[in-house]
From TrEMBL:
Highest taxon of source: Bacteria
Organism: Cereibacter changlensis
Ranges for domain HicB-like antitoxin of toxin-antitoxin system: 4-124
Protein name: Ribbon-helix-helix protein, CopG family
SUPFAM superfamilies in alphabetical order: TTHA1013/TTHA0281-like
InterPro entries attached to this UniProt entry: HicB-like, TTHA1013/TTHA0281-like
């Protein structure tokens, strides 16, 4: 998992705009703060569909960039965004859970027409990325 730094800016009551100094052409917009994780995740997925993996630069290097300094001077903020690159390979994992919790997981997954694995993966992704 890599963490990319997003520059988050907003003018007045407009939507939040996000750009990534390490990823030219990758941007997102969110109507409110709570929507940012979802929109950023979509933007990163789209960007990496057609681009090679980019190693994120350290925060101190990004802060020194003139365009980042300018954005910060205009009220922008920086946000570390986790990105989980899909690799398409399923891996079996052995985990231990309280029996009651496992029962609740299975009941909830079944009610949502999901497998236990899909349910747990979705929960883990949401916990890590906010989406």
């Amino acid at each position: 998992m890599r963490y990319y730094t997003a520059v988050v800016h907003q003018e007045g009551d407009s939507a939040f705009g996000l750009s990534f100094p390490d990823l030219p052409g990758c941007f997102a917009a969110a109507e409110d703060w709570e929507e940012i994780p979802e929109k950023v995740s979509e933007a990163l997925d789209l960007y990496f569909e057609d681009s090679e993996t980019v190693e994120p630069r350290p925060l101190n290097v990004l802060r020194a960039l003139p365009e980042v300094q300018e954005a910060l001077g205009e009220g922008a903020t920086l946000m570390a965004v986790p990105y989980i690159a899909p690799d398409g390979t399923q891996v079996r994992a052995n985990i231990s859970l309280d029996r009651g919790l496992l029962r609740a997981i299975d009941e909830t997954a079944q009610a949502r027409r999901m497998s236990r694995s899909a349910f747990l993966a979705a929960l883990a992704r949401r916990e890590i990325t906010g989406v």
